Amino acid sequence: MSGNGNAAATTLARIQTDSVVATLKALYPGLQFEIIAMSTTGDKILDTALSKIGEKSLFTKELEHALEKNEVDLVVHSLKDLPTVLPPGFTIGAICKRENPHDAVVFHPKFVGKTLETLPEKSVVGTSSLRRAAQLQRKFRHLEFRSIRGNLNTRLRKLDEQQEFSAIILATAGLQRMGWHNRVGQGALGVEVRAKDQDILDLVGVLHDPETLLRCIAERAFLRHLEGGCSVPVAVHTAMKDGQLYLTGGVWSLDGSDSIQETMQATIHVPAQHEDGPEDDPQLVGITARNIPRGPQLAAQ
To answer: pTM here?
Structure first.
């Protein structure tokens, strides 16, 4: 048996896929894996803000097409890029351990030593996310926030070479994966597979990290309920402590002037990975985890 893994044609996407494939090779030394790079619509449209494109599958459609045609057996995504409702026939067969979900501010060299609070009036900060822009606009009224698109190298080059941006907001996980920071960890990676392909589901199922899985179920259920996506400034944060799952969710107006935030909690047993789980997707957020019991999954939702 061999497995074909799919990655978007960027350095970061390749690094993410390499990390998953390296884990699978260690677990299944007798299998061969080939990585195939592809570009997505989201990678190609760089002159328009994500919120204005209006499509929720910008970073997944082409990859799922290859999956459907059996050109590849699994696709590695940043979980934030996966819609909460997947097309028929697809499921998330594994969610890898999440270690750092935070954002980072990268300043233009002339503003070294500054913070967002101390940047000059009307300084422009770049971000590709409405969520980031709305939250930051609410706190830093003296700044302007504009869309900046492209992969990490492209956005950093725009910061250095153009005079438009004083700083840009990036995902810490992406910077760390690229080796531009002391490696602490990364955000959650999701492995998308064909929902009826039992062999591949069994293959990738061992990658599930139980705590990350349950937290991501809760987050995706929250976003699905609000129909959140790239065009809605919705944010969610989860934490597990002493058998309790805490979820804080928030929604912001586009200009950041108004918001609502609430925190809720549920008692959840984090299971060992070998415990028997459901055969379907009981929480209906596109995740199949047959080695995690149904009860904790439904409680997380």
So the answer is: 0.70
